[in-house]
Amino acid sequence: MERAEIMKRVIGILTESQEIRRSHEAGLEAGPASEPGVVTLLLSEMMPHFSVPADATPLQVGRIVGETLAPAVHTIVGAFAAAFNSLAAVHDSGRTDVSSMDVLRELALRVEAGAYDHGLDDDADDADDPDDGLGEGGPDHV
Hints:
The relative contact order is 0.16. The chain is mainly alpha-helical. The chain has helices spanning 3-25, 38-46, 58-92, 100-112, 123-126.
């Protein structure tokens, strides 16, 4: 799955969790408990599928699982970190006119425009970047 697609999924998970929280605070049911939630569905879509030979040793199984899942987990964690940094930058700036949903919406638009096509795991490049993850202009342009 492409990095931008994973970022879109992460934004979907965060948006859904906001909606669940708001429903809960309003005293409404978030949805039927028997149906898998969007978080479960999105995570299952983001994780790669693999098979293990029936005669594989425990060590081989561990190696296959690790080699298959590690890159996906790394990318997913990077996407959540980028989304968190976008939300945190707006929060830390003291802006009260921008909601978390506004930030997620803006982030989704930037992903759609290709802002995350370069990759989410380029952490070293972003370490000294004062940008909040929202692209040019930072939180003032949400």
